[in-house]
Amino acid sequence: MKRQNITSGTEWEGRVGYSRTVKVGNQIFVSGTTAVDEQGKVVGKGDVYLQTKQCILNIEKALNKAGASLEDVVRTRTFITNIEEWKAFGKAHEEFFGAIKPAATLVEVSKLIDDDLLVEIEADAVLE
Q1: Separation CA 31–CA 8 (nearest Å)
Q2: Percentages (nearest 5) of helix, strand, coil residues in the chain
Q3: In tens digits, what is the pLDDT along the chain, a chain of 128 residues?
Q4: What domains sit in the chain, N to C, each tagged with a CATH number?
Q5: Which of 42, 63, 67 is nearest to 120 (CA)?
Q6: CB of 73 within 8 A of CB of 125?
Q7: pLDDT value at position 30?
Q8: Distance (Å, whole) CA 21 – CA 87
Q9: Measured in whole angstroms, how far is the alpha carbon of residue 71 from the centre of its chain?
């Protein structure tokens, strides 16, 4: 199967050695995605709901570059710095995935790469 590495163009991909998205056959894997806009600024500082929405919008852009959409997502994995914020996360996740219902994991972590980041989401998708 052919492998396609798709970049978002951020500095981190080159510095750390990863791809935003990897497509192999009909499977698409989106790396951990945070609430950073195209200028590299954190969106929704202090707000898990807004950060979750931005993460998913960023994932949607990555999927689109791979020829997929949110409807193709079969799994999300979310890392959150305060599990007590699960309702705010859940509200945003449901807004995008309520009808799709991917398998999902939510775990608390002690910290993300930037103190202003509260949420990081990975996504896996499968094209028919």
Answers
A1: 11
A2: 35, 30, 35
A3: 899 999 888 777 888 889 999 999 999 999 999 999 988 899 999 999 999 999 999 999 999 999 999 999 999 999 999 999 999 999 999 999 999 999 999 999 999 999 999 999 999 999 98
A4: 3-126 (3.30.1330.40)
A5: 42
A6: yes
A7: 98
A8: 28
A9: 14
**CA-wise closest residue to 81 among 38, 39, 35, 40:** 35
Cα–Cα distance measured from residue 125 to residue 120, given in angstroms and rounded to the nearest whole number: 17
Token pair 């052919």 in the structure block, residue: 2
Place of tokens 């709901």: 49
Instruction: Show the tokens assigned to 90.
Output: 């859940």
3-class secondary-structure state, position 100: coil
Cβ atoms 37, 18 nearer than 8 A: no
Token match 């790469």: residue? Answer: 113
Tell the residue number behind the tokens 């080159």, with chain if given: 14
Cβ proximity of 108 and 83 under 8 Å: yes
User: Which tokens hold the place of 86?
Assistant: 């699960």
